[in-house]
């Protein structure tokens, strides 16, 4: 009679997971853990299963156990497992209404693997949720009355909101499904802002773009969706916004990486085309953005080609060292 080994049970659990039979996968992973309690990969796989069963507490507990085991072993080869455990713990914490703890997990994971697209996607989601909550809280405290929040129904979340990583297994261990994306009001608001800009808000009958004096996070993040024919006008717009507006928007959460990249595009455009009237604005805004929370992390998502272009443009156009404003 054959005796099941932890690896055999793990592989069987992976097969059930792939078929979305999460109860059976859970049983296999649990049996494997009973035979090999010091294997962090097994806890990572079972945590992913608990996430798909919406058992957030059990998922978090398994991630904590797995992270302790990784820490005890202190083996570099286990870094990918640590990243997966941190990401899965973040998802559990996010769904347990603990966004700040979840964001810390993602930040820790990004220090290990700063180019991981799935981590970036989760980071974006957490930051947007936090920004939306901060915005709504501000409205409530400023108006002692009920606040009407306009939430529009949409058919789907923008595809580029999530990771486009074709190798999803990089974040999900030997199993390919990290769990279904969860629809949130932050997603709705982000999509709504994009729709307003690209359909009805910008292209009015007179052809004059709409430039809000008090832009929102959603508005600024959606600028990257503008067609090429409208981008130049918005480059000038973002360089002309009062710095205090940016400070008020991003002082709690730091910059949105998508807006940061659009802003860098605007800087490249202005300097390449000798629009040096924006010189002081560019310098002031770069200094401001570098002082915002988590800039060192957000800057890792900046397009390296834009950074290289700005280094040359700063030297040749305005006789400045870009690094003095960026770091």
From TrEMBL:
| Gene Ontology CC terms, in alphabetical order | protein folding chaperone complex
- Coiled-coil spans in chain: none
Q: Where is the signal peptide?
A: none
Please, which domain of life does this record's source organism belong to?
Answer: Eukaryota
Which keywords does UniProt give here?
Answer: Repeat, TPR repeat
Q: InterPro entries, alphabetically?
A: RPAP3 (IPR051966), RPAP3-like_C (IPR025986), TPR-like_helical_dom_sf (IPR011990), TPR_rpt (IPR019734)
Domain RNA-polymerase II-associated protein 3-like C-terminal positions: 217-305
User: Which sections of the protein are TPR repeats?
Assistant: 6-39
* Keyword Repeat recorded: yes
> ATP-binding: present as a keyword of the record?
no
Question: What are the TM regions of this chain, as residue ranges?
Answer: none
Instruction: List, alphabetically, the PANTHER family matched.
Output: RNA POLYMERASE II-ASSOCIATED PROTEIN 3
Family designation: Belongs to the RPAP3 family.
The protein here is known as RNA polymerase II-associated protein 3
């Amino acid at each position: 009679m054959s005796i099941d080994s932890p690896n055999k049970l793990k592989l069987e659990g992976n097969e059930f997971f792939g078929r979305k039979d999460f109860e059976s996968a859970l049983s296999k992973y649990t049996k494997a853990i009973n035979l090999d309690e010091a294997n962090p990969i097994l806890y990572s796989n079972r945590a992913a299963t608990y996430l798909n069963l919406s058992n957030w507490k059990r998922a978090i507990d398994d991630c904590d156990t797995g992270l302790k085991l990784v820490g005890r072993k202190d083996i570099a080869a286990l870094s990918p497992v640590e990243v997966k455990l941190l990401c899965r713990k973040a998802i559990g914490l996010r769904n347990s209404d603990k966004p700040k703890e979840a964001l810390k997990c993602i930040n820790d994971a990004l220090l290990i693997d700063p180019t991981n697209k799935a981590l970036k996607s989760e980071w974006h989601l957490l930051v947007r949720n936090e920004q939306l909550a901060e915005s709504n809280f501000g409205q409530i405290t400023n108006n002692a009355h009920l606040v009407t929040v306009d939430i529009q129904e949409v058919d789907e979340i923008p595809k580029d909101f999530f990771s486009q990583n074709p190798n999803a297994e990089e974040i999900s261990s030997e199993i390919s499904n990290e769990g279904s994306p969860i629809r949130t009001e932050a997603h709705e608001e982000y999509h709504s802002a994009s729709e307003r800009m690209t359909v009805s808000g910008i292209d009015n009958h007179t052809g004059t773009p709409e430039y809000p004096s008090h832009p929102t996070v959603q508005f600024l993040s959606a600028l990257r969706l503008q067609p090429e024919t409208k981008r130049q006008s918005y480059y000038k717009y973002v360089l002309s916004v009062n710095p205090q507006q940016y400070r008020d928007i991003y002082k709690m959460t730091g910059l949105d990486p998508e807006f940061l990249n659009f802003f860098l595009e605007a800087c490249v455009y202005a300097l390449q085309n000798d629009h040096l009237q924006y010189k002081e604005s560019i310098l002031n805004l770069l200094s401001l953005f570098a002082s915002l929370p988590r800039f060192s992390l957000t800057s890792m998502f900046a397009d390296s080609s834009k950074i290289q272009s700005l280094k040359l443009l700063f030297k040749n156009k305005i006789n400045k060292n870009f690094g003095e404003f960026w770091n």
